[in-house]
Amino acid sequence: MKKLVLIPTLIAVLGLAACETVPYKDRAALYQKQVSDKYVGQSVDNVVLDLGPPSSTYPLTDGREMLQFETKKDGYYPRTSGYVSVGTGWGGGWHRGNYGGIGIGIPFPMEYPDGYNSNEAKCVKRFIVNKQKLVESFAFEGKGCF
């Protein structure tokens, strides 16, 4: 009987562990480090060869230059009005001291019949390039970068 309780509990714990995500702040820091490690100290030619021509450039007063690359990602997803959970469970009564229960549910979205929502994610990448055409720094903004 204990095996019947242990199996659904194990499935529920594993299911919750699979839902864990890396916080945005940590993902942003990792992305900043990865891009900086790849380009800072390198020729600006490497940036242009990888990302294509910049969206815009700006000469700085000290002779350096700022290169800006802008991208947009469009995504569509069904509009939902909420979720309905369907599941099974096991439980007992007060007979012979057994009580309690465990259930597992699976959520299903209830879709609007009239279409989809648009989700646009923008990314702006900026590189500062010195007079020797080497990348000095990298910065980004937007949630569409990674």
How much helix, percentage-wise, in residues?
A: 25-40%
What is the straight-line distance between the termini?
A: 47 Å
Oligomer: single chain
The count of DSSP E runs of length 2 or more, i.e. the number of strands, is 4
How large is the count of helical segments? 3
Radius of gyration: 26 Å
Poorly predicted tracts of residues: none
Query: How would you write the strand order of the largest sheet?
Result: 1-2-3-4
The SSE order reads: HHHEEEE
State the shape. elongated
Largest sheet, strands/sense/barrel: 4 strands, antiparallel
Strand residues, percent: over 45%
Overall SS class: alpha+beta
Mean pLDDT: 78
Q: Briefly, what is this?
A:
The protein has 146 residues and is of the alpha+beta class. Helix content is 28%, strand content 46%.
Could you give the topology of this structure?
Layout: H1 2-18, H2 24-39, H3 44-51, E1 56-59, E2 65-91, E3 101-129, E4 135-141
Antiparallel strand pairs: 1-2, 2-3, 3-4
What can you tell me about this protein's structure?
By secondary structure, the protein is an alpha+beta fold. Helices cover 28% and strands 46% of the residues. It is built from three helices and four strands, in the order H-H-H-E-E-E-E. The chain has a four-stranded antiparallel beta sheet with strand order 1-2-3-4. The chain is elongated, with a radius of gyration of 26 Å. The mean pLDDT is 78.
